[in-house]
What does this fold into?
Amino acid sequence: MKDALKSPSFWILTLIMLINISVIVYYAPVEKTMGIVQKVFYFHVASAWVGLLALAVVFAASVYYLWKRADRASVLALASAEIGTVFITCTLLTGPLWAYPIWNTWWTWDPRLTTTLVLWFMYLAYIALHGGDGTEARKRLAAVYGIICFVNVPLVFFSTRWWRSIHPVVISSEGMGLTPKMRAAMFVSLAVFSLLYVHLLAIRMRAISLQQRVKHLKAELFA
Amino acid sequence: MPSFVRKAWLIYCKDLREEFRTTDHLLSTLVFGTMLVFVFSFALQLVEAAPEAIFPAVLWVSIVFMAILALQRSFAKEKDSGALDALLLAAGDRSILFYAKFLYSLTVLLLLEVIVVPLLWVFMGAAGTTVHMPLFVAAVFLGSWGLAAVGTLLNGITVQLPGARLLFPILAFPLFVPLLIGAVLCTQGALVGETRAVLGWLYLLAAFDLVFTIVPLLLFDYVLEG
It folds into this structure.
């Protein structure tokens, strides 16, 4: 914690987050029919975006690990999965806050909701498999599972999409159902959340590497 | 016969022979399956719903539970007896081992279903409904295919790690989701006679099976390495 307070990137990010919140609160207009509750959208979509981005990073890092056997790739995949889980949890929590007043239900088995929930389960399974103890077998097998999960996401999405859908489509072939100001606020939010992801990723990667090094040194010491 | 197919066939035959010599695992899985049928039918007898509305869901939940038991066998028995390395040496190519074990898992699963599905059919009172048999059989077959393919791949992963066998259902469940949605809707279509409407779901099942039969060809070398 002390380290984090000393690093300039922490303070820069705090400032950017505050700007993002004021853009959402003051700059973005209040939606005509939904009212103030629509503001949660900027957090909801940005978290979902980071959740998906993190899975793509897990996939790319897993492929790279199996190819080059670089330990850093495995650490990157684990850190990305952990942060992805946090953001997907945010998505799953902010969704119902909006859905209850608008859809009159906390949860429904819509494609996007179902896919997000399955994604969350896959992240948990991936983290359980990886374990973080840094043995070669765990890294290798977690990399294989990370690749399978990425392949599975489109299958989950399309299977649930044919099933039924009531979720609003934000970006469709006809453009976006948002006013220019709302769109600007959304893109600011997406960019800021991506930066937050990168920042957290760097911290988490360092922590995992140190953890594994401590474990390694302990093993050497008692061997 | 090309040597790839021949080797896979020999390992497959060996596994089946071994399974039938000591039937304890097959038998206990079967008993578990029939108990599931009994519990579900007993619990749902007071639910006033048409059989075709609840039968597909109950069918696939039972099959998945049985599969989770049955599919954990394929690599575990070799790992436990320390024969996995020898088998790897004998097979040469690791994907041969995957396809042999996949076929073996699929066979065991289908054998179990041949007994459990008719039982469930009778107990759930679905015997009165007219069913589109080819679609029903296709749904069960393609569904089991996908379960066996994913299960074999994941079993190869979990046997490598000490104490990770409990992870098998956790790793499998999220991957089973698209398969289960397709299988349940296909089964329902077969029961209510909407064969044309659910044809798309049959294609989805086939696509899922294809993906998880081809992906191991690329990835299985990494699973059984070392």
Observations:
- Chain B touches chain A at residues 153-154, 157, 160-161, 164, 167, 170-171, 173-175, 177-178, 181-182, 185, 200-201, 204, 207-208, 211, 215, 219, 222-223, 225-226 (CB under 8 Å).
- Residues 158 and 168 of chain B are 6 Å apart (CA to CA).
- Chain B has one domain: 3-223.
- The longest helix of chain B spans residues 94-123.
